[in-house]
Amino acid sequence: MTTETSSIPDVLKTAEAWRNSGRPVALATVIETWGSAPRPVGSHLVIDADGNFEGSVSGGCVEGAVVAEAIDVIDTGRPTTLEFGVADETAWQVGLSCGGRIRVYVEPVN
């Protein structure tokens, strides 16, 4: 039997479950890609205030940096947009092994 929630990606179900259990949550979403980015636009990563996460925005390339920013987003309540790629100032800290670029929007889930 198909239900309305069957089309919701698992990571969004996780975000809802975590939020319903009282865990502060942020959602990171790929909003733009250039070149050979490892995840398509619309890919999600859900993060809680303790740094636990589920999903992927880059196949493991920048998840650590996104998680760190998401914890700040949870603390401040202010969304942010992150950009990663081989040509930016974070290239030596985090980067996409495939050489592409991505923009990720991180927002608190209320």
From TrEMBL:
Q: Which residues form the XdhC- CoxI domain?
A: 18-85
- Renumbered to this chain, the signal peptide range is none
Q: Which domain of life is it from?
A: Bacteria
Q: Name one Pfam family in it.
A: XdhC_CoxI
| Name under which the protein is recorded | XdhC family protein
